[in-house]
Amino acid sequence: MILAMDTSTYVLGVALGDKEAVKAEWTTYEKKNHSLRLMPGIDHVMKSINVEPSDLSGIAVTTGPGSYTGVRIGVSTAKAMASALQIPIYDVSSLEALASNRRFGNGLVCSFIDARRGQVYAGVYEAREGDLQAVFQEKLWLLDDLLAELASRSLPVYFLSLDVDLHRDNIQQALGSKASFGGATDSRIKPAEILRIALDKPPVSNVHALVPRYLQLAEAEKNWRKVQGDHE
């Protein structure tokens, strides 16, 4: 039985399952600190199907990109549990998990998370018969640059993001009828998809070496490096 968790956005989700089926899934949209919700959510899901920690065979966690604090909480919790239980841990991209909501569609899928200042964390994939093929490696994009790249391609683009309304006008202006958007259900990461992805990949080789994929420095680290540079 694998425990999957996502804390990369304000939506928090937990799932339990194996190769046969998803046994339990829990999601909350409440905008509250993940440190107050994650362990109670895990406890709730496990108790709902009478699973004990000793029944777990692995932990799957989204390692980002996304909220710095949220990702850090999820990764730290997953590493602590995997280490204490001596079980494998699976590293899943939050953007891949989000894009998987459209893996049975046609054309390109762009999953993104707002990064402020006209930037987004984004991954672009092509959906092919239930599989996703990466078109652009996930990275921090200037939204205008990303839209220019997508506009140069002939395929339609399906956008998935909790932050889509922040950028809908710019996307439609750049892509016109080639752009379409996921609804509320498909615009958030589903714990069951994290579980599915994890079950189809090997675990990380070293639990303690797993780190969040932030894709850019935190503001505090940027400021620290700037100060250090000023004194060199």
TrEMBL record:
<feature type="domain" description="Gcp-like">
    <location>
        <begin position="31"/>
        <end position="185"/>
    </location>
</feature>
<dbReference type="InterPro" id="IPR043129">
    <property type="entry name" value="ATPase_NBD"/>
</dbReference>
<protein>
    <submittedName>
        <fullName>tRNA threonylcarbamoyladenosine biosynthesis protein TsaB</fullName>
    </submittedName>
</protein>
<dbReference type="InterPro" id="IPR000905">
    <property type="entry name" value="Gcp-like_dom"/>
</dbReference>
<dbReference type="InterPro" id="IPR022496">
    <property type="entry name" value="T6A_TsaB"/>
</dbReference>
<dbReference type="Pfam" id="PF00814">
    <property type="entry name" value="TsaD"/>
</dbReference>
<dbReference type="GO" id="GO:0002949">
    <property type="term" value="P:tRNA threonylcarbamoyladenosine modification"/>
</dbReference>
<dbReference type="GO" id="GO:0005829">
    <property type="term" value="C:cytosol"/>
</dbReference>
